[in-house]
Design a protein that fits this description.
Blueprint: H1 21-24, H2 27-39, H3 44-71, H4 80-102, H5 110-128
């Protein structure tokens, strides 16, 4: 439905997606994230680097894509960076925490990935006042 949000489930690497929901919710990435968060107090530079080269970079890419949609008249927004942060939160909060707390058993299915991606896109467009059915 909203192909600009996430790639098809068959390309779960997140390559080319606006926000790599499948990648960040995969088991391997969840284990790495838990490790980095657990050691951030002892190794703050490690946590900062992970943040800057991972999530912050993804937010910048998403903000750029949202800005392009706004320039095409498909989305109204005043602050692309804030919109990207809020959109990412809608997409990632439940899936990432499910994997973080449940481990392997919390892995998302392709259908769940699509559900979160499309639900987040619908919420963004509805809140924006853009008609999602157009």
């Amino acid at each position: 439905m909203y192909s600009w949000v996430a790639p098809p489930a068959s390309t779960a690497s997140g390559a080319g997606s606006a926000m790599p929901l499948p990648a960040i919710a995969r088991r391997r990435e969840a284990r790495l994230r838990r490790l980095v968060i657990g050691e951030a107090g002892r190794f703050p530079e490690l946590g900062r680097t992970y943040w800057e080269r991972g999530f912050e970079r993804g937010l910048a890419t998403l903000a750029d894509r949202l800005q392009r949609l706004a320039e095409r008249g498909l989305l109204r927004l005043e602050d692309p960076q804030l919109a990207a942060q809020q959109f990412a939160e809608m997409l990632l909060w439940v899936p990432v925490n499910r994997v973080m707390f449940c481990g392997e058993a919390g892995a998302l299915t392709p259908a769940e990935i699509d559900r979160y991606a499309n639900g987040g896109a619908h919420a963004l467009l509805t809140a924006d006042g853009t008609n999602p059915s157009e």
